[in-house]
Write a structure and sequence with these properties.
The complex is a heterotrimer of chains A (391), B (103) and C (175).
Chain A (H helix, E strand, L loop, with lengths): L7 E5 H11 L4 E4 L6 H12 L6 E4 L3 H13 L4 E4 L2 H6 L1 H9 L5 E6 L13 H4 L7 E4 L3 H18 L3 E6 L7 E5 L3 H7 L26 H30 L6 E4 L6 E5 L2 H16 L4 E6 L1 E3 L3 H7 L5 E6 L11 H12 L6 E5 L9 H13 L5 E3 L5
Chain B lengths: L31 E5 L9 H5 L5 E10 L2 E9 L9 H5 L5 E5 L3
Antiparallel strand pairs in B: 1-4, 2-3
Chain C lengths: L3 E8 L4 H14 L3 E6 L9 E9 L14 E4 L4 H4 L11 E5 L7 E5 L1 H8 L6 H12 L4 H8 L5 H17 L1 E2 L1
Parallel strand pairs in C: 1-4, 4-5, 5-6
Antiparallel strand pairs in C: 1-3, 2-3, 6-7
The chains are: A alpha/beta (391), B mainly beta (103), C alpha/beta (175).
Chain lengths: 391, 103, 175
Amino acid sequence: MMQKTKLVEALTGNYAAAYAVKASDVDVIAVYPITPQTTIVEKLSEFVANGELNAELIHVESEHSALSAVVGASAAGARVFTATSSQGLELAHEILHIASAMRLPIVMAVPARALSAPISIHNDYGDVMNAKDTGWIIYIAASAQEVYDTIIQAYRVAETANLPAMVAYDGFLMSHTVEPVELNDEEEVRKFLPRPLRPYTLNPKRPVTMGPLASPDWYYEFKYQQATALREAYKVVKEVDALYGEKFGRSYGVVETYRMEDADYAIVTYGGAAYGNAKAAADMARERGIAAGVVRIRLYRPFPTMDVLRALEGVKAFAVLDRAIMFGSPAEGPLYKDIATVMFMHGVDKPAVNIIHGIGQRTMYVEDMYKIYTMLKERPSKEVVFMGVRI
Amino acid sequence: MSLPKASELPIGAVIPEPGSTRRNKTAGWRTLKPVIHDDRCVRCQLCWLYCPEGTIVEIKGVFKVNGKTYDTKYEINYDYCKGCGICANECPTKAIEMVPEAP
Amino acid sequence: MGILEFRFHGRGGQGMVTAAQVLATAAILEGKYAQAFPEFGPERRGAPVKSYLRISDKPIYIREPVLHPDVVVVADQSLFQAENPLEGAKPTTILVVNGVYKAPQKTYYVDATSLAMKILGRPIVNTALIGAVVKATGVVTLHSVAEALKKYFTGRLYDLNIKLVETAFQETKEL
């Protein structure tokens, strides 16, 4: 049983995000609605309307405008928030690169939803994965509680590293599912998120130029700076998570493991549905004598290379469960590609299968995940397996 | 002169010195330059309005021209004028003449 | 306590998503873990919808539809013609139904539609069914439901709905 003395609310993932934004005392919110993000905006509108949140809520005409508006507001020094999914994230795409290269500490929630065509309102990580290399810090949460905690952490990380941060989670399966969420005292959250001294802001009293053109003599240096900053953000993420744990009693690390201490076979994955069901499958496998474990990637960018290597050190074989298809890749799973690169660069050669599942919210039954463990035990390989699809 | 390293540059490609573009005197771009014949200028402000570079300046004072007294006068800032000729084109009294830049 | 899994069957607009959420909220207020979610999709009035609820004394992390419910709640018996609400049910499954239906499992019934018409003036049966579920399973207390309901209704609507919950609790009978 949980402590009844703390403030525990029954909230959906989206409402948890809205409460986190409220606690973080943001100044400007610019949003355009899209399923399954809409209820975040509805809740935030309620908070602004009833005075619980003192923020400027701008209803823009598209997601491209939403991200552009928060870029502008952030450049002027405001603490900002936006949220979108799927085609909305695609529409905003060109601004993603601009936000990170301009080093603006924007925080964006992305309840992950599949990409068109055909149109799907349901959950997979196609949208998030298509944005993975835009220079943003990317977290993938696995519970409504984690969404709440991570958005608060993201503000401190973004404002320390001077990089924007995305907090992604399962659309519908988490965004619209009610779960218990322990809320922090908002005064304490404000103390955890002091306003930082921003290196540069658009301020008539100290004028600067932002967003200039850079000729071939200059462009590369700025991009190198940006690449280094994202690599260094890894340390910031870990530090903030530890500090948050000390203050509020909950921390998650960059990679979460389940029964990995003595595991022979592991499923490596991300998101609430995949991780939760894989844990249940690992329990099932253990009951049947398979030493199974699960690894969850929480920090996806910058990639937690050493943590992944450490987590998978003792296994005989592992499966990477991806919920997005990177068409035309040597292996279509984005996480599999990242892990294959890590293994190759560090001289680790183990059988590792790429399971693609949960596309368009195809149900990833615990039974399916259990089959992955038996597959790893009986026929470990290095191939891509599209699971759960009628072929 | 070697250019600064990545670690020496401000983050986000911010240019921290405001108005640095003033150092770039674009006078050298001209082949023709505008000359305002003040005795034909009726102070309609159109040249000032239309100049795409903002290099026509408005000067306040007392100016007696052709028996009339005006409180403004328009002058070209030849440091930055690129000689596009829009001012001469827009002037309703043909008070601006485009003359070849002296070699 | 173990994990208790519920499946709610209704038609879009009858409030079965809210029913699951209110019960989840009540359980969370009692310090338990709970998870409530609808069958996701473009919702429309009148179409058959399902929602799911899990209540446990341990953290719940699986996210799949409830295939073998411990409790099935049916918002109106006409749904038995449209689909099979008892699909995947176990011999120990408890059925809570608005109306009367003969099932092999233990069944609790209440005329939620009449009660709702009498008390609310409209045939929205979800709160009545919440009362019925509490009577049939005792999974949460009426007091917790009363507290949980405050997060979903205010003022007169709250008073009417809590009355409906309590009346339905009284009226629910085992078949």
